[in-house]
Amino acid sequence: MLSSIxxxxxxxxxxxxGLDAGGLGVFRADVSGCLLAGNGHLAGWLxxxxxxxxxxxxxxxxxxxxxxxWSSCWAELADxxxxxxxxxxxxxxxxxxxxxxxxLAGLRFGSEVTEAFGLLIPIGDRLxxxxxxxxxxxxxxxxxxxxxxxxxxDLLCRRxxxxxxxxxxxxxxxxxxxxxxxxxxxxxPEAYTKAVDGVPIGPCCGSCGTAAWRGEPVIxxxxxxxxxxxxxxxxxxxxxxxxxxxxxxxMRGGRVAGTFALYYREPRSPxxxxxxxxxxxxxxxxxxxxxxxxxxxxxxxxxxxPLTGLPNRALLRDRVERALVRAEREKHALAMLxxxxxxxxxxxxxxxxxxxxxxxxxxASRLASLLRESDTVARIGGDEFVIVLPDCDAAxxxxxxxxxxxxxxxxxxxxxxxxxxxxxxxxxxFPADAQDFDTLLKNADMxxxxxxxxxxxxxxxxxxxxxxxxxxxxxxxxxxxxxITQNQLELYYQPKVHVDGSGLAGAEALLRWKHPRRGVVPxxxxxxxxxxxxxxTAIDAWVxxxxxxxxxxxxxxxxxxxxxxxxxxxxxxTQNDVPTHVxxxxxxxxxxxxxxxxxxxxxxxxxxxxxxxxxxTTLRELGVRLSxxxxxxxxxxxxxxxxxxxxxxxxxxxxVSDLEANPADRxxxxxxxxxxxxxxxxxxxxxxxxxxQHAILYAEGCVYAQGYYYSRPMAAAAFAEWASHSHLxxxxxxxxxxxx
Length: 740
Ligand code: C2E
Ligand code: CA
Ligand code: CA
Fold this sequence. Notes:
Distance between the termini: 119 Å
Shape: elongated
Number of strands: 27
Strand content: 15-25%
Bound molecules: ligand C2E, calcium ion
Low-confidence stretches: 1-22
Number of helices: 27
Helix content: 40-55%
Mean pLDDT: 88
Structural class: alpha+beta
């Protein structure tokens, strides 16, 4: 073995023979590989006399130098006269192996090669270093090219065993619970490796378990007698393992990650060569383990949702695709449930994202606890979960959906408040509804939307007709994209008036889509769609620019509209720099900022985007008027009014429509008007349709109003016409006389 070079035994051999390590073996051999003669060094290595050498075959002296190998060497010698030196292992008389370099030359008699002349040069240290170096390079290369962890550790063991044929290598990992898990041990008996798996480390637990426990190397020269092996002794001896030397290695944080061990088949202590090898190997193991831990973390981040620990969309796709192959082969069904939490957004908006996260985490663990091992639950979006049930038909899927809805309805406590989550579930089935992951998911999603519009907190199966509805939506979306480029959008203007009849206070710009085939499409039918598909930001920008241009045109025509209000979707504020756009547009048309009013929803005002708050403040400082649209329909917390830089509240139409018949509505309207006075905000009543409503609002002190009673929204030209007549004053004065 290599190990004897520089080792104590080989020194003993050399000393006994009076040789130094630099001595060369010299021999002559015949065509059959038999020695004709050898020198004293050669005899000394064999613990023999020089006279005993002739007749011995090289096959018995040099590892792997069999008849076939010799005859190919001979052929080469016969051909030329000398050949390139090569490394080999020499079998010493002690039984160990010594690395040598072999140089051969042919001796000619006439034109024929009749003998080989050989030089054997001991190359212990050089070979050892080269060997170690090769192992290091091979292992680091394997790590670098991304070979699997176990394969890398296996490679390490095999390379070491190639260099030191008398050892059996093993690498064992220590898990978080301090148990041993063999990672590699290609030459160890499988039954032995199995026996080690899962054994806890401890103060008296074989070489590896003890080394890991102590955090330092443990050398056991005789397993048969060492007390450390008391427990695992029978298994080891049964498999012919006689000695074991184990060295722990640590991760960067200092935790013992594993052990690298050398086993021997006879009781013995390690060679210094083995020491050199182990030093190199534990370092390699630490590098490989560290790398594997990093890879595992990357895999976790790539395939799992950090908030809930559930698989993400990528892992879901992978699992479903495998499950589909199996379902196809075994001819069974598969169900996909798309689960969307109801009303998470208001919680996020009003209590903050930390509260929303708590709810999500609690829902995730409920879902996970309800499902079987073979099921998958994944989180694929903010409040969207997907559950995949292999081997599950429609009836079974319905049962699971009911179970999920029931489990969902248990309360969650957050910050002293309690919530009852609920979910809308859409179900699609393989093979009836779809054959691939994407279609299954799309169909389940569509069914979920149906569940939402059917009142939430319920489950719906996918139906083919849903596809048609979705197709119509897609068609509408495509048409809407064209609407912008083909000038099919137009602004109508509805007057905002002084309730006391003193005239026009402003106008609200309302969008109309003049579709060449469908006719005028009302905003309720396309604004939500535009918000969903992201077109709304472009549309609202267009509205703002068009309204400003209109004010300027009216100004030039001598028609004074004090301020024009435009509706701006909440989405626009998170995506665009609204203040800059507003400033530039006003400047372009030479308008004073108070000529423009932005109507915003409570949803926008309450969102916790710091940028939005900053933008609103910038707009207010600029002098643009800000108005809260549909006031009273959103969140009931009024405290935000003290924080927001707004000028105006628009009392929602729903409070106005029943003003005459319903005293509660009248009280509410009066309250909102009161709030306006308290906070110095203008209040505009929306949707005034009758003289009676008008009179009540006047009586309650409401200053501004809007509604069909005064005028429907009109195209710009009609609005100009309307504004230049005085019929408004006459109408209102008439009514007030009549009602008072
Ligand atoms: P909104 O901002 O609350 O606008 C007032 C809606 O009430 C308008 O509907 C208007 O025509 C209608 N209305 C006015 N007076 C009366 C009345 O006396 N009785 C009744 N029943 N209705 C009245 P419209 O024009 O259909 O707009 C609907 C909604 O679409 C708007 O509600 C607004 O939220 C949205 N919208 C309209 N234009 C735009 C726009 O340019 N951008 C954005 N983001 N949203 C817009
Ligand atoms: Ca509005
Ligand atoms: Ca409104």
